[in-house]
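New to this. Please check both lines:
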Amino acid sequence: MSYDTNPYVLMCRSKYLHLNDPRCYNGAYFDAEMMWGGWQVLDRPPDTETAARKLKFWRELNDYAVSQRGEDSRREFKIVEQEEVVA
């Protein structure tokens, strides 16, 4: 089984500052909010056990990062089953 056809995909997304109004005064924006970005592929685990182990690792690592750097470093992770493409 090649890397691209692994049945699971580990995905991640983070927050970013979305500017509703681009005007800025002394470094403060008039209207801005934190929004979730798009999902990105982090890894393609080959089986269920590896996927669960990697998901647990990344969530624990992110919890530690949030405890050290604050809520702005929060990330979301999920496992998605990839449908195999038959050539």
